[in-house]
Amino acid sequence: MARHDDGVVTVGRSRIGTVFANTGGILFGLVMIFPVYWVLNTAFKPDAEVRSFTPTFWPENPTLDNFRSALGEQHFLPSMVNGLVITAMAVAAALVVGFLAALAIARFAFYGRKAIILVVLAVQLVPFLALLIPLFLMLQGVNLTNTLVGVALVYLVLLLPYTVWTLRGFISGIPRELDEAAMIDGCTRAQVFWRIILPLTGPGLVATSVYGFIQAWNEFIIINTLNDPNHQNLMAWLLYNQTERGTAWGPLMAGAIITSIPVVVFFLIIQRNIATGLTAGAVKG
Amino acid sequence: MRHGKYPFIIGFLAVPVALYAVFVVAAYVQTFQLAFTSWSGFGVIKYVGFENFEKLWNDDLFWKSLRHNGFLLLLLPIATIAIALVFAFLLNVGGGTKGGMTRGVRGSKLYRVIFFFPQLMALAIVAVIFGRVFSSDKSGMLNGLFPDSWQPWLFLADDRWALTCILVVLVWQAVGFYVVLFSAGMGSIGEEIYEAAALDGATKVTLFFRITLPLLWNTIQTGWVYLGIAAFDAFALVNIMTVDRGGPDGATSVLAMMIYRNTFEYSQVGYASALGVVLFFLTLTFAALTLRVTRRDAV
Q1: Alpha-carbon distance B140 to B129, whole Å?
Q2: pLDDT of B135 strictly over 70
Q3: Which residues belong to any copy of the ABC transmembrane type-1 domain (chain A) (predicted)?
Q4: Which residues, numbered 89 to 118 in chain B, qualify as contacts with chain A under a Cβ-Cβ cut-off of 8 Å?
């Protein structure tokens, strides 16, 4: 707690401080938002304006050509569908597997519990890039390269640590007395998990699914290594497309916008809960 | 009630443990194994003992990459956390005190959404955009903003500044998330604590250092570890943004970039695996050290 500091007695607001805070906030906000705005700006410009050496801050002749050309690419729609399927599989599996694992860790004391928590944490730290080759060989051995399931499995492993960790935080926050009360009323342990803990973990499930969605949707290195061009997701397609055709900025930015739409929509829906969801795991860690 | 506990534990943990055993533990064992071979990715696997590690020791690019990772490891968390703390504080407490209530600046809810936007953009797209921002001719955004009489700045093409450009983008991408995270942490610090301190005559600065910082310490510590991991990686940005992927002349090379190039471009899977082993130990050491050094009693 703060002690009495000699000579300092201001309680009210200082005007200069407030002006400073507001200016700082606005400037910082501009820096944060500028690249996003620039993507939009470029995506709606016709090719000639994009290539112009004097950048303009507004498209003079706004056009949808870039979007048409991105959508018209042979691999665009299939890649989008692939990405959605892989993401849905990985996130759904991570929620189920992660919730059960978090339950076990949060609600039971057992031999090896500490070890499991440590391993879960350690896996988050280990750079996945070093595992690309073994993973490729492993999946190739069981004919899962060039499939959506293979990639979804790897993503599941990537998403699990965060999922388990966050859900564990949420479950630990639910008082055990609730479990006990329900069991006295005749619930079995399974019913307690299903009827009491699962509904109360709702916000945690939302938060982790957002995180999982963003991670899986935006990943491109693993999928690029494991799969052929017919089994890529949108992000990998976008980057591959860029290197392939040099710098076609307009269509690239249009593609980037289309790629970001699912994430942004998802975010806006759950925006209110995100801070609580993200911190619950960390703060109670 | 005690009986019937183990079926649950085993049932709940079987799948994740199996997944880890296969995809992480077994995969890492294989990386360790490959580190002692001269395998190219095809054909026969030949064991060569510690040859890869000797080569690594004498590889200038390795030491250079390690220094670059160190540079990012030091500056990314410091810069990100410092900026995020200041702005989170501004948003939450910066608006001054009115009617005895400490408030954030006007529009702090909107800021929170704006700050979160970079987080929603894929790192790959961020890299592509900032490639444009830092473009080294007049078509680049920054160079375009400078007066015409100036020589265009080289940014990513300048071996002295290229890595700093990468650092700036990493900070830009990460900082919004930590503003939101720290804001949430500050929100959970009781209003009455601030009030009591303000009545005791504490200034904003005192509030920040005596109350906010200590009470947020756990969150900051977690953030430090995550940012450190991001600094160890940095692959996506280096891969997409930099001249000659890790250039100019290795000025932005990082360990992950070396692993990738050795695996997929130079067909030196054995050497890449040795780098992977080094990265593995470095990451774990970093995490263990961070958690130990920053451990601190709660206020």
Answers
A1: 10
A2: yes
A3: 80-270
A4: 90-91, 94-98, 105-108, 111-118
